[in-house]
Amino acid sequence: MSALELTAAILAAAGRGRRLGTVPKALLPFAGRTLLEHTLAAVLEPDEIHAGVVVVPGEHLAAARELAVRHPKVTAVLPGGEERQDSVAAGLAAVGDAVWVVVHDAARPLVSAGLVRRVLEAARETGAATAALPARDTVKLVGAGMVTETLDRERIWLAQTPQAFRRALLRDAHERARREGLRATDDATLVEAVGAPVRVVPGDPLNFKVTTAEDLALAEVLVRERAGAGERRTGIGYDVHRLVPGRRLILGGVEIPSALGLAGHSDADAVLHAVMDALLGAAGLPDIGQLFPPTDERFRGADSSGLLRAVVNHLRQVGYAPVNIDVVILAEAPLLAPYIPAMRERLAGVLAVEAGDVGLKATTAEGLGAIGRGEGIAAQAVATVRRITG
After folding, report:
1. Alpha-carbon distance 186 to 88, whole Å?
2. Residues 6 or more apart whose Cβ sits within 8 Å of residue 212
3. Bridge-partner residues for 245, per DSSP?
4. Number of Cβ within a 10 Å radius of residue 46
5. What is the dihedral of CA 67, 73, 77, 82, to 10 degrees?
6. Is the dihedral of CA 191, 193, 199, 203 positive or negative?
7. Among 162, 266, 210, 238, which Cα is nearest to 20's?
8. CA distances from 97 to 43, 80, 208, 252 (A)
9. Residue 108 Rama label (left phi>0; alpha psi -120 to 50; beta)
10. Which of 3, 38, 69, 384 has its CA 20 to 30 A from that of 194?
């Protein structure tokens, strides 16, 4: 990948959302996750976005970081400033060598990956671009409760995010604004102030900003309808490994105290291997033996949690996302029940789903066969994925 292609997204999520309660807007429960997680998934979905920086209220940094870092493209979660402009400037300082920057408000969770791509493409032609909608209503200027002027609505466009810029241009615009005390409610205004052209890309009426409780309720209905409308597919996966001395026992991404561990080229996590094959099967993709060949030294001793993240990314690249999984572990020993909750949380985090979307149980083989003799551990998984579009 050429350095000239590097593109980062800045998610402005430092709004307090006082009209919606005491919890910051980005951390509000929303359609099974949080507003922040929904928006992150959409903005970072395009392959053209290589990294994400999230800016949140400083006092909620730990909670936001725990959510945001689940997404493999997130490189930084930072405390924001007093105003949105200050927060974006903080994010801009953390995008590293990115040549292009996409800025989006976390409070717009219905943004599509397609709109992100279109705005970025327009910016690459002109240096700066914003999504916007033409005004549908007659627009009037009002002072002291009286109309002072009626504007020509044919020339009025309502700005949205995402907005995209050449990083150097946006950096210069922010630096000039800081020196001259210029304040603005969006970054395109700052770029306009330095005399640079800003291309307008037709936005999306559903890409509205969640400000009130009514906005939140409407957005949640729309998100759930959108998710329910996506094609759903189901796959199964199975994996088994021998128990041997001198190996750690890793199951479901959790290390379990045991005198014996599972033999394998990677960490031999049978649970995660079964889940990966179930997900890949649901999407009609080759199995993990082809993705991560046991003859490839890069995967010797590999952490299967990292391999599962790679599988989830691979799924997203071909247009699918995990919905839920169900796993059965077959093991005579050790007792796994105490570790099931940690495994569920681990799987939910890597898959970016709720813990309630992860079914996980352990059983024995009642002394029958190799599993029943304690010679190995097996896992079987069923996974459902949905098609994602943008």
Report:
1. 9
2. 19, 20
3. 260
4. 21
5. -110
6. positive
7. 210
8. 19, 21, 31, 36
9. beta
10. 3
* Token pair listed for 95: 């995008």
**Torsion-angle region of 367 (φ positive above 0: left; ψ -120 to 50: alpha; else: beta):** left
Residue 237 CB neighbours (<10 A): 25
State how beta strands 249-251 and 358-363 pair. Answer: unpaired
SS3 for 139? Answer: strand
User: How confident is the model over 337-355, as pLDDT tens digits?
Assistant: 999 999 999 999 999 888 8
Own/partner contacts of 90-95, CB < 8 Å, gap of 24 or more, are 90/55, 91/10, 91/11, 91/12, 91/53, 91/54, 91/55, 92/10, 92/167, 92/170, 92/171, 92/174, 94/53, 95/8, 95/10, 95/51, 95/53, 95/167
CB atoms inside a 10 Å sphere around CB 320: 24
Give the position of tokens 């210069």: 172
Dihedral over alpha carbons 54, 55, 57, 58 (to 10 degrees): 100
Please, which residues have CB within 8 angstroms of residue 345's CB and are 6 or more apart in sequence?
Answer: 355
Q: What is the pLDDT of residues 124-148, one digit of tens each?
A: 999 999 999 999 999 999 999 999 9
φ, ψ dihedrals at 287, nearest 5°: -75, 180
Q: How far is 247 from 263, CA to CA, in rounded Å?
A: 7
Which residues, including other chains, have CB under 8 Å from residue 12's CB and lie 6 or more apart? 55, 80, 84, 87, 88, 91, 103, 104, 105, 106, 161
Task: Measure the CA–CA gap between 164 and 129, rounded to whole angstroms.
Answer: 5
98 to 4, 163, 167: CA distances (angstroms): 8, 15, 7
Q: What are the backbone dihedrals phi and psi of residue 181, each rounded to the nearest 5 degrees, phi first?
A: 70, 25
Helix (H) / strand (E) containing 376? strand 376-387
| pLDDT tens-place string over residues 286-345 | 999 888 988 888 888 889 999 999 999 999 888 889 999 999 999 999 999 999 999 999
CA distances for 183 relative to 17, 97, 178, angstroms = 20, 26, 8
In the numeric block, which tokens belong to residue 302? 């590999």
Task: Tell me if 59 sits within 8 A of 35, measured CB to CB.
Answer: no
Residue reference for tokens 């210029």: 182
Q: State if pTM tops 0.70.
A: no
Pairing of strands 199-202, 128-134: parallel
